[in-house]
Automatic annotation (TrEMBL):
UniProt-recorded name of the protein: YggS family pyridoxal phosphate enzyme
Family classification: Belongs to the pyridoxal phosphate-binding protein YggS/PROSC family.
Domain of life: Bacteria
Signal peptide positions on this chain: none
Cofactors, names only: pyridoxal 5'-phosphate
Molecular-function GO terms, alphabetical: pyridoxal phosphate binding
Pfam families (UniProt xref): Ala_racemase_N
N6-(pyridoxal phosphate)lysine modification, residue list: 31
Domain Alanine racemase N-terminal positions: 17-209
Alphabetic keyword roster: Pyridoxal phosphate
Length: 210
């Protein structure tokens, strides 16, 4: 596919799910693609947020194009916090210390990213916050002064559609119960299910560059 094809399909998926047109934002996952390719294949189709999952790659690209909206979707080790200065939204907060470290660094930046909390998806040994811990973690993350805009989840790998849809639907319910409006879920292989379940941000990479 390509960016215009994915955008067109996204609008069709919104209609099929009875969602308002434009209610789902495409986040272009640009990890592994250099700026020349991003400028040729993504940027002509509108001002999309661009998402990276490696600290140094993000730093270099965002330094070259500070005019673009950058998101960070990778797992967040302590040594990567320093690269987040240009980031508008961090998708995968899993522990309170990550938010505390970002808040502390942001004092020196003069700006701070907003956050999403990553929810555990039921897989063994995978990333994310267990559902039962979400209210406590949300309160502690908010105590840093940073803004939590919603939840993020990754579908379990190689799971049947019904199970993926269940994970997305459960996450949407948790966000609703917590009063959070943004839902980052769905990738190239499963974004139609995520749109059906109420995603507001889909993180699509491979399909944009094929
Ligand atoms: C790479 C990545 C994506 C995009 O996956 P595709 O299969 O390339 O669409 C989405 N979310 C996260 C967290 C990723 O690391």
């Amino acid at each position: 596919m390509s960016v215009p094809a994915v955008l067109e399909d996204l609008r069709a998926q919104e209609r099929a799910a009875g969602r308002a047109p434009g209610s789902v934002q495409l986040v272009a996952v640009t990890k592994g693609h250099d700026l020349a390719e991003i400028e040729a294949k993504v940027l002509p189709y509108g001002p999309l947020p661009l998402a990276e999952n490696r600290g140094q790659e993000l730093r270099d690209k965002a330094a070259a194009r500070p005019d673009l909206e950058w998101h960070f979707i990778g797992p967040l080790q302590r040594n990567k916090i320093k690269y987040l200065k240009p980031v508008r939204l961090v998708h995968a907060i899993e522990e309170v210390w990550q938010a505390e470290a970002i808040a502390q660094a942001a004092h020196g930046w003069g700006q701070a990213p907003d956050l999403l909390l990553q929810v555990h998806n039921g897989e063994v040994q995978k990333h994310g916050i267990a559902g039962a811990d979400l209210p406590r973690v949300l309160a502690a993350v908010r105590a840093t002064g940073l803004t939590v805009r919603g939840l993020m989840v990754m579908a379990p790998q190689d799971a049947p559609d019904a199970q993926v849809l269940q994970v997305f639907t459960d996450t949407a319910r948790r966000a609703h119960d917590l009063g959070l409006s943004e839902l980052s879920m769905g990738m190239s292989g499963d974004y139609p299910l995520a749109v059906q379940a109420g995603a507001t941000l889909v993180r699509v990479g491979r399909s944009l560059f094929q």
